[in-house]
Amino acid sequence: MVARAQAVTAARWVVLVFFALLCAFPFAWATFTSFKADADLYTVGHVPFLYNLPPTFDHVRVLFQETEFLTFVRNSFEIGVIVVAITLATAVPAAYAIARLTGEWGGRLAMAVFVIYLVPPTLLFLPLSRIVAELGLQDSIWALVLVYPTLTAPFSTWLLVGFFRSIPRDIEEQAMVDGYSRAGAVVRTVLPLALPGLLTVVIFTFALTTNDFVYAVAFISSSSNMTISAGVPVELIRGDVFFWQSLMAATVLVAIPVALAYNFFLDRFVQGLALGGVKG
After folding, report:
1. Threshold 0.70, pTM exceeds
2. Alpha helices, DSSP H only, in the chain?
3. Can you name the CATH fold of 67-279?
4. Domain boundaries, the chain
5. I need a surface site. Which of 7, 88, 100, 125 has the fewest CB within 10 A?
C-alpha cells in the first residue's frame, strides 16, 4: 500500500511538472527570444535554444525608444479602469434585479442576457461604427470606452446573477428588519459576500479590454490613442519586416503584471466563476 501511494504521488508530480513546463514554455521562449541578436535569430545553422551570440538589450531599447509603448500601456490602463467602472455600475444592479426581483422570469432574462454576449463582435462592427461616427468619437479612446461595455456588461450580468442567487435572502432581509433600506442592505450585506464575483468581473473586464484587437484597430488610427494589443503589432510589424525580439519583449512586459494579478486573486477568481456558472 505504501509503495502504491508513493507511485501515485510520483505520477501526480510528473503530470503537474509536465503541464507546468508546458504552460511556462511560451513565456520562457518569449523571454529568451527578446535578448537574441538578429544574426543569432536568423542564422539557419544556429541552435535556437542557445545564445550562439552574446545576448543584447537592443530590442528592448527599440520597444521603448522607437515605439510609443508606454503610451499604449497608459491608454490600455485608462480604458480598462473606466470600462470596469461602467461594467460594475450597470451589471451589479441589473444582476441583482434579475436574481431578486423578477421571480420566475429571472432565469429567462439571465439566459437572454447571456445570449446577447454570444453575438460575434464582427456582426456589431457596422452599427457600432455608425454610432461612434455620429458621436464624433473616431480615433479616440472614448470610442473604445463606449464600445467595450457592450461586450463586458452582458457576461458580467449573467455571472453576477448566479452569484447573487447563491447568497441567502435572509441576510439582506434581516438587515432590512434592522432598519436599512433595500439599497443599504445590499451595500452592507450582499456586496461584501459577493466580492469574489465582483473581482471576477473586474479581472474579466480588464483582460478583455486589454486583449481586444478588432475594435482597437477598427476605431483607432493614431498611435497616440492605441492600446497595447493594437499598437504593438502596428508599430513593430512594418510591411514584411517583423521585429520579433521587440514583439516578444512587449509580450513579456505585459504578461508579468497580468500573471501576478491572476495569481494573487486566483482563489476568488475561480470561486466567482464556479458559483456564477453553477447557480446561474
Report:
1. yes
2. 2-34, 38-42, 58-65, 69-100, 106-117, 121-134, 141-147, 149-165, 169-177, 182-185, 191-193, 195-211, 214-219, 228-236, 244-264, 266-279
3. MetI-like fold (1.10.3720)
4. 2-60, 67-279
5. 7
